[in-house]
Amino acid sequence: MLKTICYISDSQNFKSEDNLLNLYNKAKTNNLKHNITGILIYKNGNFLQVLEGEQEMVDNTFKRISLDSRHKNIIKVINTTVEQRIFEDYNFGFTTIDNRNELNNLNDYLEWLKDADSKSANKVIAMVENFIGRK
C-alpha cells in the first residue's frame, strides 16, 4: 500500500549553504535507496517535505526525521494512503528545491499535476503552493 506524508518543520543548524547541501544530498540518497519519491523544499528557515512510497518505508523515514535534531516543531499536515505517487515522474522521483530555476520547474510540474484532478494530489499541491508562496 502506498502512503504520502507531507510535513513542515523549522530548521536547526542550517546557517550555511554547505550544511543545507549536505542535508539535501543525504535525503536524496536515503530516499532513493528506500524507493521513496517526493520533494524537499527549504525556504526562510523552514522545510516542507513530501514523502511517498510503501507505507512502512514512509513511516520509518518520517520517524527518523522526527527524531533528527536538525528539525524542530515538526507538523505532519498530510498523512494518507494513496493509489499512486504524485512526484514519481518529477526529476526521477525525488528532488530538492533550492534555487529559482528548480522552483520554476516545480511550478510547471504542479500545473501539469492539476490536470490529473486527483483529490489527494490536489491537497499536496495546495500545501506546496502555499509553502512556496504561489497562487
UniProtKB/TrEMBL annotation:
Domain of life according to the entry: Bacteria
A GO MF term: FAD binding
InterPro entries given in the database record: Acylphosphatase-like_dom_sf, BLUF_domain
The BLUF domain, residue ranges: 2-93
Pfam families to which the protein is assigned, alphabetical: BLUF (PF04940)
Name of the protein in question: BLUF domain-containing protein
Organism: Snuella sedimenti
